[in-house]
Structure formats: structure tokens, C-alpha cells
TrEMBL record:
<feature type="domain" description="HTH arsR-type">
    <location>
        <begin position="10"/>
        <end position="106"/>
    </location>
</feature>
<keyword id="KW-0805">Transcription regulation</keyword>
<dbReference type="GO" id="GO:0003677">
    <property type="term" value="F:DNA binding"/>
</dbReference>
<dbReference type="InterPro" id="IPR036390">
    <property type="entry name" value="WH_DNA-bd_sf"/>
</dbReference>
<keyword id="KW-0804">Transcription</keyword>
<dbReference type="InterPro" id="IPR036388">
    <property type="entry name" value="WH-like_DNA-bd_sf"/>
</dbReference>
<keyword id="KW-0238">DNA-binding</keyword>
<dbReference type="InterPro" id="IPR051011">
    <property type="entry name" value="Metal_resp_trans_reg"/>
</dbReference>
<protein>
    <submittedName>
        <fullName>Regulatory protein ArsR</fullName>
    </submittedName>
</protein>
<dbReference type="InterPro" id="IPR011991">
    <property type="entry name" value="ArsR-like_HTH"/>
</dbReference>
<dbReference type="GO" id="GO:0003700">
    <property type="term" value="F:DNA-binding transcription factor activity"/>
</dbReference>
<dbReference type="InterPro" id="IPR001845">
    <property type="entry name" value="HTH_ArsR_DNA-bd_dom"/>
</dbReference>
<dbReference type="Pfam" id="PF12840">
    <property type="entry name" value="HTH_20"/>
</dbReference>
Length: 126
């Protein structure tokens, strides 16, 4: 009988690992958490993340677990508190680049919307 084993990230092609990273980032709540962590100068306690996001503790815990599993954040327990930080400073750079991309995309869409509004009115059927 062939022994079955769990696939590890190192067994996967790099494009699949990268896709899984983007899947980990593909939720608005996780992006919000990462923005909070990137704005912080120090590791951030879960209580502060809860206060800033307004999420329920169990939901936040699930999102943090996804980010941790994909090595986007790290956690450290100090007494009863758990503190999170970005696992790598380039995560903040990735967020910044994505925000710039979004702003540029919205700017282009806004220009198209302005052009649409400037068109002469269309007369409907009579």
C-alpha cells in the first residue's frame, strides 16, 4: 500500500505558493488587519485590532490564523495578551503598491465616468 502524505509548500510549484499567498490576502477583513499592523510601530495586541476593526473575536481569530498559516504575520504571547506584527516589511510595501494600483485604476474609471457624463443626452423612444 502506498503511503499517503500531506503536500508541503516546498513540494508545490512557486506559482502555486504565490497564488496561495494571494488567496490569504483575498479578504477585506484580512487586508484591514494588515493595514492596521503596517501602520503600527510596534507589535499590536489582539485587543487593539478588535477595537479598530469591530469584528467579533472568533472571526478575527480565524482571519489571523489564515495570515499566520501563510506566514504573512507572526504572533507572540506576552502574559495573557497576544501581539501580532507583519512577518516581513515587504508586506507593507505590497499593501502600498496595491493601494497605488487601486487609486490609479479608480482615477481612470473616474475619467471615463466624467467623459460619459459629458456626452450629449440620448433621446428615448417616442
Amino acid at each position: 500500500m502506498k503511503e499517503s502524505r500531506m503536500p508541503f509548500e516546498s513540494d508545490k510549484p512557486l506559482y502555486e505558493i504565490k497564488a496561495n499567498l494571494f488567496k490569504a490576502l483575498a479578504h477585506p477583513a484580512r487586508i484591514r488587519v494588515l493595514e492596521i499592523l503596517s501602520a503600527a510601530a510596534e507589535p499590536t495586541p489582539v485587543s487593539e485590532i478588535l477595537a479598530e476593526t469591530g469584528m467579533e473575536a472568533t472571526l478575527l481569530s480565524q482571519h489571523l490564523a489564515v495570515l499566520k498559516r501563510h506566514q504573512v504575520v507572526t504572533a507572540e504571547r506576552v502574559g495573557n495578551a497576544v501581539f501580532y506584527r507583519l512577518a516581513h516589511p515587504k508586506v507593507a510595501a505590497l499593501l502600498s503598491i496595491s493601494r497605488t494600483f487601486l487609486a490609479d485604476s479608480l482615477s481612470t474609471a473616474g475619467k471615463h465616468l466624467e467623459a460619459l457624463r459629458a456626452l450629449p443626452p440620448i433621446k428615448g423612444p417616442r
